[in-house]
Amino acid sequence: MTQISFPHQAAAAAKAIKPGFIPHVGLVLGSGLGGLADLLTDATIIPYDELPGFPISTIQGHAGRLLLGYLEGVPIACLQGRVHYYEGAQNDKVKNIVRTLRVLGCEIFFATNASGSLRTDVEPGNLMLIHDHINMQGTNPLLGPNDDEFGERFVGMENAYDPALRKILHEAAKEIGFSLPEGVYLSVLGPMFETPAEIRAFRTLGADAVGMSTVSEVIVARHCGLRVAVVSAITNLASGMSDEQITHDGTLHFAGQATERMTLLINGFLRKLNV
Ligand code: HPA
After folding, report:
1. Domain enclosing residue 31, as ranges
2. 59 lies in some domain
3. Is 102 a member of any domain?
4. Mutate which of 115, 185, 249 to test ligand 1's pocket (most atoms within 8 Å of Cβ)?
5. For ligand 1, is residue 186 a contact (CB within 6 Å)?
6. Cβ(5)–Cβ(149) below 8 Å
7. What pTM was computed for the model?
């Protein structure tokens, strides 16, 4: 007898709770951005511990629940809480979460996160649209045998950050009335923030933002054919770029400040999707 994989088990559990609901967008809410979930209408809340293969999140600002509901009339599977490598080796959990969205029916994977800016022109409280990444986590969620059911062994990463979705995001930002700089997100393992020397090195490599998440999710999402969009809430200038000490509390504070813009942007984006 073949074993039913966790993404199918988790999707079955979610479907049993909200029968007939097929989400179009899987939306991941990053550090301090969880409040966005309150805007979902007709929302059904499922704690991660009711979803086989899902993680129990340990980080302040990450609630650990899946919400199924609507934003701007678009059916959404909203993940409040993600996994980070700094919590321990979690490849299976990253794969299970993202693939569950796929099995539920999502076509778009939209991730938000909090990150440090390597650019003085993109200050805390602003948003940055991610158009590429540099994986400096020293690991990869697709290590090990390939799960043929979800995708092929080798995954192309050109245009991983969907150009058509980025265009819609720019249009939405323009209509709302703020500029949306694009940049390259560099992912580190964490949990410590970087040294100033690391930040200087990362700038030389071509990074515009630095953070401890998202890249592993994007890799799994591309492997299983989801279209990807990522927007960072800039919570601080990166290490060595200002006199301010970088702290998790500061991250949550500025993520909170960016929530209003993030909310407007996501709503504007969804209105333009024509689902
Ligand atoms: N570095 C890494 N991760 C982060 C940062 C940072 O400066 N800000 C928010 N998350």
Report:
1. 6-272
2. yes
3. yes
4. 115
5. no
6. yes
7. 0.94
